[in-house]
Design brief:
heterodimer; A: alpha/beta; 5 strands; B: alpha+beta; 22 strands; about 45% helix; about 20% strand
Chain lengths: ~130, ~675
């Protein structure tokens, strides 16, 4: 089982992300509804992938990314940024802050699966 | 496998979240508008609203509701500019944003009612695109604060928030909290700590920091929460419930120094400012009950996805999956029905229902050039969401009337030795068992009975009850001219109808020159059924969908008239080899029989027995609110109750099988 942290302040959005990623086998999902919750979860448990929204209360996704990349034990955590911001500047900023992948909402379940499969690597074959 | 990912399955969840965002947004916007009028910034509210709209936009895009995406996007851009300007928005900008939120609300309503969603109004989008933010005044620096690594991370809006708080005499404080497994398992999470901080003050910023691993910071992580609050360090420490963490004051100034600001221009009384007591936090706890059910539901939906995928896979391998597919689509319908049931099971707080009123009252008062103090006492009651949805427009109607007609202009009030500001008070309390009572009271001019009587062409009503009966006459619901004494005639009949359809009642008390009070008594819950609306002999009837097996077009060849059919009205109808009793609905209701072409029959099943009922036309399938006929004197077998089909004309909700029982027994008694 690989642990995936799904970070988005919208419950429905988290559900949609999880629903799409169920297409990959062997994933276990943990929800975080804010950047703060995400950082807290990351500091207490190991994860193999984080799907991260940018626009959130208290701490936005960029801040979460910056924090994650400043931590030795989290530096190599694959982070898939999934956001409604589709402009080039936001993409650049996220990549600079350390995003492994950048995808815009609305997302295609297939491309989300494909990116996630690439990031967690290995035995998942039906990633599309 | 993800072919079975269907965004439509998330519509219900979308509606729930959209409503939360809109409710909180209306409240935030009121504060933003207040600040704008005083030339001040509202950095926290602007940012929260900006975020809300961004979230809404993303969700709407996922569930593919383009008009909401467009509106949310336009509003988001406006608010992003305002946020960049330190949380400032012009008064006109705030009004436009309010208009935009209402437009989204209307469209969420469309979704909820299953109607096609109206397109986004182009003209509004255009005006939103050119909104000016009010950025004349640059955000100040929190120069009075100690140097602090958290402070150095603040942006313009956050500094503005801090500066405003300090100006208002609050202290800037910092709480450091380190998460650990133990604390996490006890529920002492960063989210819980954040909640506690928000209960004692205003959170400005949270910064996560790496710290050396120690017994007090086993995760090598510390969250620094920067917030504004009043009170001494000891008091705050106590109020924070001895939160694990270090608390310190950041500003150099003495805490008692600046008195709180006096707000001269405000139209509202403090009750409104205190509304956060029923705000998001509390509501969320309640919505959580529903959320839990929705979460179970989404598991079910996911299971269905997998099931469907498996069926598809089987089909591709050449298996016969017709039966499986039938079950699967049945399952799909059941999941839909379950979701509808959950949505209906949701109760809302009265406070939540009324939270958009302050903004409305403010707008109306401005428009009508009246000074209005709104005293809102929503209480802590909850009511059925279906009741709330129907009742709220009626309350809004009365509020409009009170401001339009009831309350006088400031000049007129002064001339009558009344305070310039009129008071509109809206209170809710528990009434009789199972009922809530809403009082909508103004201290305006009262209703001129003589004038109403004159318009109605009747003698003056002897009391308020009689006046109310006069007011409900449709003839009185249109105001002919600009008529200052016509009082509250406008549309009272609509309010009465709504409340009565809910099974409630309205009473009126009015005193000329002193004011008017409407009391609405409404049930806490109502019953809603899905029904088929049919017509027979030009009357409409509702048959509960639950008992309907099929709707067929009557083929005269399949109809048999055994001896006695003429008298009993019962013929026989054959459908796919099964013969069942056939009765024309018009016969059951003793209506004359005309010739009907293309007669339809509704096949109804009870205990595995089938009955067919001939109807003239099948009009619609819709949800209706059933007012049960509880009075034993008027209870008739076969008549379940009455329902309003949305056009004001009641229709009977019938159980046709029980109706047959009634006529046949009557027939048998005849010699």
């Amino acid at each position: 089982m690989r642990n995936v942290l799904v970070v988005d302040d919208s419950r429905v959005m988290r559900e949609m992300i999880v629903a799409a990623l169920r297409g990959l086998e062997g994933l276990k999902f943990t929800h975080a509804a804010s950047g703060l919750e995400a950082i807290e979860r990351l500091s207490l448990h190991p994860f193999e992938l984080m799907v991260l929204d940018l626009n959130m209360p208290d701490i936005n996704g960029i801040e979460v990314l910056e924090f994650v990349r400043s931590q030795d034990q989290l530096r190599s955590l694959p982070v898939l940024v999934l956001t409604s911001r589709s402009d080039e500047a936001s993409r650049e900023r996220a990549i600079q802050a350390g995003a492994s992948r950048y995808m815009s909402k609305p997302f295609e379940p297939q491309s989300l699966i494909a990116s996630a499969a690439e990031l967690v690597g290995g035995e998942t074959s039906n990633g599309g | 496998m993800t072919d079975s990912f269907d965004a439509a399955d998330f519509i219900a969840g979308f509606i729930v979240e959209a409503e939360e965002h809109l409710g909180a947004g209306a409240k935030g916007l009121l504060e933003i508008a207040d600040a704008a009028e005083r030339g001040k910034a509202a950095p926290r509210q602007v940012r929260e609203l900006y975020r809300s709209l961004h979230t809404l936009k993303g969700l709407a895009a996922m569930v593919d509701v383009e008009p909401i995406v467009g509106l949310a996007h336009a509003l988001e851009s406006t608010l992003r500019d305002a946020d960049a300007a330190g949380g400032r928005l012009s008064v006109e900008g705030a009004d436009l944003v309010a208009e935009g939120l209402r437009a989204i609300e209307t469209r969420v309503g469309d979704l909820q009612q299953g109607r096609p969603v109206q397109a986004a109004p182009r003209e509004l989008l255009g005006r939103l695109a050119v909104v000016d933010v009010d950025d004349d005044e640059a955000a100040g620096k929190a120069a009075t604060l100690e140097e602090d690594e958290v402070l150095s991370r603040l942006d313009a809006a956050e500094r503005e928030m801090l500066e405003q708080g300090l100006d208002a005499g609050k202290s800037a404080l910092r709480l450091d909290f380190s998460p650990s497994d133990e604390r996490y398992n006890e529920g002492t999470t960063i989210t819980a700590i954040r909640g506690r901080v928000e209960s004692v003050g205003e959170l400005v910023k949270v910064v996560p920091r790496s710290v050396p691993r120690s017994s007090s910071a086993p995760s090598a992580l510390t969250f620094s929460l920067l917030f504004l609050a009043r009170g001494s360090l000891e008091e705050l420490r106590e109020k924070l419930g001895a939160a694990p963490g270090e608390l310190r004051v950041l500003d150099k100034r003495k805490q008692e120094e600046a008195p709180p600001e006096v707000d001269e221009a405000a139209l509202m009384v403090p009750e409104v400012a205190e509304a956060p007591a029923f705000g998001r936090g509390v509501v969320r706890v309640d919505v959580a009950r529903l959320d839990e059910a929705l979460e179970r539901l989404s598991d079910l939906v996911l299971a269905r996805f997998r099931l469907e995928a498996e069926i598809e896979a089987l089909a591709q391998r050449g298996a016969d999956v017709r039966r499986l597919k039938e079950f699967s689509s049945e399952h799909r319908r059941q999941v839909r029905a379950l979701r509808a049931a959950i949505m209906r099971a949701r109760t809302v707080k009265v406070a939540e229902m009324l939270e958009r009123l302050p903004l409305l009252v403010r707008g109306l008062a401005k428009e009508r050039r009246k000074k209005v103090v709104l005293a809102l006492e929503p209480g802590r009651e909850e009511l059925d969401k279906a009741v709330a949805e129907r009742l709220f427009p009626a309350v809004v109607h009365l509020v409009r009337n009170a401001i339009d007609h009831g309350l006088e202009s400031p000049e007129e009030r002064r001339a009558h030795n009344k305070p310039e500001e009129g008071t509109l008070s809206i209170r809710c309390s528990t009434g009789a068992r199972g009922f809530l009572e809403f009082l909508i009271e103004d201290d305006g001019r009262g209703i001129d009975k003589a004038r109403v009587a004159e318009q109605a062409g009747t003698p003056a009503p002897k009391d308020d009850d009689e006046l109310l009966r006069l007011l409900r006459r449709p003839g009185l619901s249109t105001r002919t001219t600009v008529d200052r004494t016509s009082g509250r005639g406008l549309g009272v009949d609509i309010v009465l109808r709504v409340v009565e359809d809910l099974g409630g009642e309205v009473t009126l008390a009015t005193t000329e020159g002193q004011g008017t009070t409407f009391a609405l008594k409404v049930p806490l819950s109502i019953s809603i059924i899905e029904g088929l609306v049919v017509s027979a002999a030009r009357e409409r009837y509702v048959i509960p969908s639950a008992i309907i097996d099929e709707i067929v077009e009557v083929e005269p060849a399949r109809l048999a008239h055994p001896p006695g059919a003429e008298r009993s009205g019962i013929s026989l109808y054959e459908r796919r080899g099964v013969t069942m009793p056939f009765v024309r609905l018009r016969r059951l209701v003793d209506a004359p029989i005309d010739e009907i072409s293309r007669e339809k029959a509704v096949v109804v099943r009870r205990h595995n027995e089938l009955f067919a009922f001939g109807v003239d036309r099948v009009l619609a399938q819709q949800e209706v609110v059933v007012r049960r006929l509880e009075d034993p004197l008027i209870r008739v077998a076969g008549i379940v109750g009455a329902a309003d089909l949305g056009d004001g004309r009641p229709a009977l909700v019938i159980d046709p099988i029980a109706l047959v029982g009634k006529t046949t027994s009557v027939e048998e008694k005849r010699p």
